[in-house]
Amino acid sequence: MELEVKGRNISLTEALERYATEKVERIAKFFDDGNSVSRAEVELIHERNPAISEPEVADTTLFINGAVLKAREASADMYASIDLMADKLERQVRRYRGRQLDRWHGQRERHLQEETPQPVVIEEEAEEIETRIVRTKQFQMKPMSPEEAAMQMELLDHSFFVFTSADTGEVNVVYRRRDGNYGLIEPAR
């Protein structure tokens, strides 16, 4: 596993770097069975704004076979932030592993029953809001099913997820609806 620990607005001591590394490596050991963590990025940040009561932030991203898990926690002490971040990341890893097993069992049952559920397409009108772009992100989109995309969205704790459909090769969006269900946006053909 490639592990990078960076500091922003903080002098990164050897002890701090070692502590963060040990915590992330301990979590990466959950993936001994072929699902491997290919890369991990840890960023330790000190927020300079005096109005922020918890200025010590630990932000970690794990890249696992195309899936991405993120955890960000803040407190008044950097070691405490790293502990909180590691706990959150461990919960996400356990949830990810559980969903992987559930998905595997579900695919096996569907294969046996030869039933495939059809995704529900929901269209909602977008409101006209004047906005400005303050941040741009780029990421690789591996082809996946809408169910995989929904799982990835939940693991990242986002309200939507953009992905390439494994069936059509087109860009799709899965999103969480207010009623707790999911919606799928596909381009019109």
UniProtKB/TrEMBL annotation:
Location(s), subcellular: Cytoplasm
Keyword hit for Cytoplasm: yes
Keyword Amino-acid biosynthesis annotated: no
GO cellular component entries: cytosolic small ribosomal subunit
Annotated function: Required for dimerization of active 70S ribosomes into 100S ribosomes in stationary phase; 100S ribosomes are translationally inactive and sometimes present during exponential growth.
Family: Belongs to the HPF/YfiA ribosome-associated protein family. Long HPF subfamily.
Protein name: Ribosome hibernation promoting factor
Organism taxonomic ancestry: Bacteria, Bacillati, Actinomycetota, Rubrobacteria, Rubrobacterales
Gene name of the encoded protein: hpf
